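Handout, page 2. Input:
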Amino acid sequence: QVRLVESGGGLMQPGESLRLSCVVLERHFFSANDMGWYRQAPGNQREFVASITRSGIADYADSVKGRFTISRDIAKNTVDLQMNSLKPEDTGVYYCNALSLELSDNWGQGTQVTVSS
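Output:
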């Protein structure tokens, strides 16, 4: 079992910025895996948001390109998601996970992001 702890969510207005953080408690697992952020809006399935490889190469869903930035800190075992120019459609519960566990049931509690005027 890999333990993932997400934080940083909140209630935001459109256009504002927010930074999410995820700690992976198993250090060796974190350093050995590509990591991603995902989100689940009410009534929808969980979807991919962004990923970052062990070497730092990032990839993004089209809906967040140019607005979100993913980063990882190996010393802290964290993967962050900087979200700028938030939109109401960014609302959802945000989760981090290793790409290798995307289809597993190993997920953290997530952190709620609500964008509303």
